[in-house]
Specification:
This protein is of the alpha/beta class. The protein contains 20 helices and 21 strands. It is 34% helix and 15% strand. Bound molecules: FE2/S2 (inorganic) cluster (FES).
Length: 557
C-alpha cells in the first residue's frame, strides 16, 4: 500500500491500482464510456481524463496506474472542457447531426452515451463527421449490429475476446477508420460465434443489441434478480419483465459468472414460462372418455389428497415416495420432504442431485466428507496454474464456465483434457488424452502411481490429513504407464506428462463431469480422481481441489 492525493484527499492504494479504481473506492465520480471493469480499458474515449500534477496534458484515468505521491485532480474547467469535446466528437461519429436515431433506437433510455451527454450537458456537436456506415447485420437470430451507431469503444471486442475468450468479434482497420467486425451477417453460422450476447451486454449504445430489446423500452419494465436455471453454474441475472411477461435478461456481476451469460441463459432458458404448450391448469383423466380434461385446482387437489390418503391407508406411508428437483428453491424442497415425512409418514425422499452426479455425492462423501465442489468457479479459473479436465465439455454443458476456462488458458493456465471426444477446449490444451471410454479409474490410478514414483506427493498432507495411503500405494503399483496405456488405449508418455504437469504445479485443480460419473464404475472414478488431489495435497487451497460440474442451479443447495 502507498499514499497518493486525489482532489486534496490522501488515499491509500495497492500497487497496480488505476486512478479510476482509486477514485471510485474513495467515492469520487469520474465519467467513463469505453471502460468496462475486467473487460476493456483501452483508453479510447477520453471521457475519464484527469490532471496529474507534473504530467504533460490530461491522462486517461481508466488505464493509468497510481504512483506513490501522485497528485491527481478529477475536476476542473480544463477537464470538463476536454470531456465535453471528446463527447462532441463521439456523438458526431454516432450520427447525431445526420439522423434521429435516439427515438427509434432500442437502447433509448438505457444508452450510456445518452447518460454521459446528459451528465456533461452536451446536446449538439460542432463537428461534422461522416459516421461509419455499412449495412445492418442481423442474420443472427438473437443479435443485431448497426455500424452507424457504433462509437468504436471496443467494449464488445473486450467482452468477446477477454471475458468470453471467444475471439470471433474483432477490430478491423486502425485510427479514425477503426471498425468492429461483428460476425452477425449471412455467414454467421460459419464463424465461432456462440450467440452468447456478451458483446451486446457490453455495448454502451444501440450498436450491438439483442433483438429482444426491440420489444421494450427501459421505462416499461421491472427487473427481477434471479439465478439462471439452465445449468449448475449459478449465473446471476435480471429477468426483464414487461406487463407481467418475461421479455429479456440482463447479466449481473455474480460470483460465478462475472457479468457473462451464454446463449441458453440469455436467450432461451426462460421462454418456457410463456410457452403456449405449457400446462397452466390441472388436467384430470376422464373415466368416461379416457382423455385428460381441464379441472379446477380444488377438484385436482381434492382428488390427489384423497388418492394419497387411500394409498397410505391401504399400504402404509412407505408405499409413497417424494422426489424433488434440484432446480427448486431450498424452501420448496424443504416443504416437500416435510409433507412426505409428516403427512405421508414416509422417509422415501429423494432428489435429482443423486442421479447423474450420484457418484459425485457418494464418491466425494466417502473421500472428503461432502459431495460438492471444493473450490469456487472463479477461484479455479483465476488461480489454478494447471487444470485437469476429465470427461467434461464445459463449452457446451456449462458454457459460462467454458468461457472462463478459455480465458484462463489464453492467460497462460495449462490445460490437460482427458476425454475420448474432440472438444473445443482440447484445441488449446497442453495435452489431450483420448482415453477409451470407461477407463477413468485405471487412468487415475496410473497418475497416482506416477506421482508417487516421481515423488510429487505431499508427504505432510498425506500424514496429517489422509488415511490408508499405504494401501493406496500398494494398489496403484500395478498401474504402470505401460499397463494403463494398454487399458486406456493411450500413449504411456502422455500419462507421465500429465502426472508431471499436474504434480509439479503449486496450484492445480481437477474439474470433471458426466464422463466420469455416468459409468458403472462412476463412484470409483470420482474416488480415484479425489486420490490424485489428496496425494498431492491439492486441497483446501486456492486454485486446487476437485470440482464436479453438475446439472442444476440448486444442486448443492
Ligand atoms: Fe477511460 Fe474511455 S473510459 S478513456
Amino acid at each position: 500500500m502507498f499514499d497518493f492525493t486525489i482532489d486534496g484527499r490522501i488515499v491509500s492504494v495497492k500497487e497496480g491500482t488505476t486512478i479510476l479504481e482509486a477514485a471510485r473506492s474513495a467515492g469520487l465520480h469520474i465519467p467513463t464510456l469505453c471502460y468496462l471493469k475486467n473487460v476493456s480499458s483501452i483508453g479510447s474515449c477520453r471521457l475519464c481524463v484527469v490532471e496529474v500534477e507534473g504530467a504533460a496534458g490530461l491522462v486517461s484515468s481508466c488505464n493509468t496506474l497510481v504512483k506513490p505521491g501522485m497528485v491527481v485532480h478529477t475536476n476542473s474547467d480544463a477537464i470538463t472542457a476536454a470531456r465535453r469535446t471528446a463527447l462532441q466528437l463521439i456523438i458526431a461519429d454516432h450520427g447525431l447531426n445526420t439522423t434521429q436515431y435516439c427515438f427509434s433506437c432500442p437502447k433509448n433510455g438505457s444508452c450510456e452515451l445518452q447518460d454521459r451527454c446528459r451528465e456533461l450537458g452536451v446536446e449538439t456537436t460542432p463537428f461534422d463527421v461522416q459516421p461509419a456506415g455499412g449495412p445492418i447485420l442481423d442474420s443472427n437470430p438473437f443479435i443485431a449490429f448497426n455500424p452507424a451507431l457504433c462509437i468504436r469503444c471496443q467494449r464488445c471486442v473486450g467482452a468477446c475476446n477477454n471475458a468470453a475468450g471467444n475471439h470471433t468479434l474483432v477490430t478491423g482497420r486502425r485510427g479514425v477508420r477503426t471498425s468492429i467486425l461483428a460476425p452477425f451477417g449471412e455467414d454467421w453460422k460459419s464463424t465461432n460465434c456462440e450467440s452468447c450476447g456478451n458483446c451486446a451486454g457490453a455495448c454502451p449504445t444501440g450498436a450491438i443489441t439483442m433483438k429482444r430489446r426491440r420489444e421494450y423500452r427501459s421505462w416499461e419494465i421491472q427487473r427481477v434478480r434471479t439465478t439462471c436455471p439452465h445449468c449448475a453454474t449459478g449465473c446471476q441475472y435480471n429477468l426483464v419483465v414487461k406487463n407481467g411477461r418475461i421479455v429479456d435478461t440482463e447479466a449481473l456481476d455474480g460470483p460465478s459468472n462475472h457479468g457473462l451469460l451464454c446463449v441458453k441463459g440469455r436467450s432461451a432458458s426462460f421462454d418456457f414460462v410463456h410457452s403456449p404448450q405449457r400446462l397452466t391448469m390441472p388436467l384430470i383423466r376422464s373415466k368416461i372418455t379416457g382423455e385428460l380434461e381441464p379441472a379446477s385446482w380444488d377438484e385436482a387437489l381434492d382428488l390427489v389428497a384423497r388418492r394419497f390418503g387411500e394409498i397410505k391407508a391401504r399400504h402404509g406411508g412407505s408405499a409413497i415416495a417424494a422426489f424433488a428437483c434440484a432446480r427448486s428453491a431450498n424452501e420448496d424442497i424443504y416443504m416437500l420432504q416435510k409433507m412426505a415425512r409428516t403427512v405421508f409418514e414416509t422417509n422415501n425422499v429423494d432428489n435429482c442431485a443423486r442421479v447423474c452426479h450420484g457418484p459425485s455425492v457418494a464418491g466425494l462423501q466417502r473421500t472428503l466428507g461432502s459431495g460438492a465442489m471444493t473450490n469456487p468457479i472463479s477461484d479455479i479459473c483465476e488461480n489454478a496454474q494447471v487444470i485437469l479436465l476429465v470427461g467434461s465439455n464445459p463449452e457446451e454443458a456449462h458454457p459460462v464456465i467454458g468461457m472462463q476456462l478459455r480465458a484462463a488458458v489464453a492467460r497462460g493456465t495449462r490445460l490437460i483434457v482427458v476425454d475420448p471426444r474432440d472438444i473445443g477446449l482440447s484445441k488449446t490444451s497442453d495435452l489431450h488424452i483420448k482415453l477409451k471410454p470407461g477407463t477413468n479409474v485405471a487412468f487415475a490410478n496410473g497418475i497416482v502411481r506416477q506421482l508417487i514414483h516421481d515423488d510429487l506427493i505431499d508427504h505432510a498432507f498425506i500424514e496429517c490429513r489422509t488415511e490408508g495411503f499405504a494401501d493406496l500405494k500398494a494398489m496403484v503399483e500395478a498401474y504402470t504407464p505401460e499397463r494403463v496405456a494398454q487399458i486406456c488405449a493411450i500413449d504411456p508418455r502422455d500419462l507421465i506428462a500429465a502426472a508431471r504437469l499436474y504434480g509439479r504445479a503449486d496450484r492445480a485443480a481437477i474439474v470433471y463431469c458426466l464422463g466420469v460419473t455416468e459409468h458403472s464404475s462412476g463412484t470409483e472414478g470420482v474416488m480415484s480422481l479425489s486420490n490424485i488431489a489428496m496425494v498431492t495435497g491439492k486441497y483446501g487451497r486456492p486454485g486446487c481441489g476437485i470440482n464436479p460440474l453438475r446439472g442444476q442451479n440448486n444442486v448443492q443447495g
